Amino acid sequence: MNLIHRLITVMFICMSVPLLVSSNTLQAKQTDSIHVLVVFSSNEDQIDEYQRLLELQLAHFSENITFRHSSHVTKSDLSKTTHLVYQGTIDEEIPSNTVKLINSFTGPLLAIGHNIEQLSSYWKIDRDTIYLEEATISNVDDKQLTNRNVELFPFIKEDKKQQTLVKVKKNNNTYPLMVKRNNHFYLATTNLFSPVSHFLADALHFYFSVEHDHVNKAMLRLEDIHPKLIGEDLMEIATYLKNKDIPYLVSVIPVYKNPKTKEEFHLSDNSKLVDVLQFMQNNGGSFVLHGYTDQYGNNPTGDGFEFWDKQHNQPIYFPPNQLEIIKSEKDFADSTEYKKYLEDKKKFETEYIKERIKKGMAELEKVQLYPIAFEAPHYAMSQNGYQVISDYFPFYIGQVQLSDQDWRVMTESPTISNPNFLNGMTLFPETVRYIEYNEPNSLAQIREHITETSIVRDGVISGFYHPFLGKDQLTELVSEFEKQSHIEWIDLQEIYNDAFPNKIKFQQSSDNDKKKAPLNGDTFDSSQSKSALQSTNEVLEEQSVSLTFGDQLRLLKEELYWALFGIGLIVILTFASYRVRK
Ligand SMILES: [Zn+2]
Question: Fewer CB within 10 Å: N-end or C-end of the chain?
Fold first, then answer.
C-alpha cells in the first residue's frame, strides 16, 4: 500500500514536471509582455525608412513598439517600457533630459549607431567611421559571412567587461560590431541592411531573452500565375510538390490584360488551369493575390507596377490618363491647403487599391479560389497602401517598401514579423530571390542568400519560382532548400486555419482522394471584409497578442508533445502500480 502511495506520488510529480516546464516555456515565449520604446535621433520628427527598417527586426519579438524622437521623450513614455532602444541615425547632441531618462532606465538597453558616448562613458569609441571591404563577419555561434562590406564605428579596444556578440575581421584586425555589457547592448553601425540585418536578427534573441528554436523555416512561392498559363504544365509542378509533401504559395494575377490589343483574359476563361489551381488549393497550395491585372494604365500584364506610379516614382495619386508629378508644399499658399491636397490624393489611392482588390478577389471567388495573403506587384506599395490591404488580408508576402519617396527603398526582414506599419498583417518575407530566366548564376546567388538567412536561428528561407520555366529547375531549387540541416516548410493554410477557426476551413485531399475537398462555403465576400478583419484581429488578440504565427504553431506543437509525454507516463505508471498490487 505504502509502495502504491509512493508510486502515485511519483506519478503526480512526474506529471507536474512537464506541466511546470511547459508553462515556464510558455512564459519565456510569451512576448506580449514586451514593450519596446525606440528613441531615435534623426533630422525628421516623424519616423522614416530607418525606423521602419529597425521595426521590421524588433517586430519579430513584439507588436508593442513605440517610436519617439529624441527631443520628444517624456517620463510617461518609459512607464510601460520593458526594452529600450536608442537609434542614433545622425550625429547630434541628445537633449540632456532625454539622456537622463534613458540612463534612469534599468531594463535592457540597445544602442545603435551614433551618440552612444553621451549615454555612458564606458563605451570606448573612436569617432571615425570606417568602411571595411571584403571582411568576414561572425557571431558567437561561429556562423559567418565572408567577403562582406561593412560600415562601422570601431571601438578603440576590446574590454574584458564586455562580450562581443558579432565581430568583423579584416586582415589581422578584429572590430566588434555588436557587444554586450551587463544588460546594455551596442550595435556599432547605422546601416541595418544586409549583411548586418542577419546578425542583428539573431543577436536580438539575446537582447529580448527569447529562446526561439534553431530551425529555419522554408517557404516556396509559385509566382505570376495568370490566366494564359497552360494548365498541363502547371499540373506537373503541382504533382511534384504534392508527392514531395511540400506546402507552397500560389501567387495569382486573376486577369491578363493587354491594353494595346484590348485583349483581356479572365481565369474563368481557362477551365483547365482553374482545375489545376483548385487541385493545388487542396494539395498544399495557399493562395496569394498578386494584384488584379499586375499592370497600370496602358502597360501590359506583367509590367508589375499596379500599385505604384513608377514613371514618377510616387504612389498612385492620379488616374492613368492624367499622370502628373505630385505637388510639394511650396506650391500652396499654406500648409493647411497642402495637407488637404495630400488627403485628397490619398483618398484617390485608397479607392483605387480597394477597387482592384475587390475585383481581384471576386475573380478568384468565381472559381472557388480563396486568397489568404497579399503580395504587391514588384513589392511596390505606399504606407497608405498597406493600411488599405490590411482590411482584406491577415498575411503579407515578400519584401516591404520602407519609403513613400522611392519604391527602391525596399527590403525584407530575415524572420516572420508584425511591424505596426503593416497594420496587423504578419509579414512572411521573401529572402532568397528566384531562378532567373537564362541566368546560369541564379542558383549560386540563391545559395548565397540561403547562407545569409541561415545566420538567423529562425530565419525564413523563402524564394519564388516562375512555373513557365518548367519542373526541372524547380527540383534544383527545392534541393537547395533541402540541403539545410533543419528546415520546416511553412504551410500558410494551416497557420490560417489555426489563427482563424471561424473563417474558411482549408482541407487537404488525402493521398487516395485526389478530388478537391469541400470548403465550408464561407468566402471572403469583399462586402464583409471589414468585419472579417475585425473578427480576425479579435481572434488573434485572444490567442496570443504578440506571438508570431510561427511561434504560435511551435507552442501548439510543444504543448502536444508534453501532453503525449504525460499520457505515456500515466500508462506506464498505472501499469507499474497494477503489477505492484499483484
Ligand atoms: Zn526568433
Answer: C
Interval 563-578: pLDDT, tens: 454 455 455 555 555 5
Distance 205 CA to ligand 1 centre (A): 6
Distance 186 CA to ligand 1 centre (A): 19
Cα(408) to ligand 1 centroid in Å equals: 27
Q: How far is it between the farthest Cα atoms of the chain?
A: 97
Query: Which residues make Cβ contacts (< 8 Å) with residue 294, sequence separation at least 6?
Result: 224, 226, 253, 301, 302, 303, 304, 306, 377
| Ligand 1 centroid distance, CA of 178 (Å) | 18
Distance 542 CA to ligand 1 centre (A): 21
**Residues near ligand 1 ion, CB 5 Å cutoff:** 212, 458
Please name the residues in contact with 141: beta carbons below 8 A apart, sequence gap of 6 or more: 202
Mean pLDDT for all residues in the chain:
84
Q: What is the pLDDT of residues 354-402, one digit of tens each?
A: 999 999 999 999 999 999 999 999 999 999 999 999 999 999 999 999 9
- pLDDT at residue number 137: 98
The alpha carbon of 457 and the centre of ligand 1 are apart by a number of angstroms equal to 7
Distance from Cα 534 to the centre of ligand 1, integer Å: 27
Per-residue pLDDT band for 170 (boundaries 50, 70, 90) equals very high
Task: Using DSSP, state whether 323 is helix, strand or coil.
Answer: coil
| Ligand 1 centroid, distance to 152 Cα (angstroms) | 25
How far is 103 from 215, CA to CA, in rounded Å? 36
pLDDT confidence of residue 14? 33
Which position has the grid cell 521623450?
Answer: 73
Cis peptide before 440 (omega within 30 of 0): no
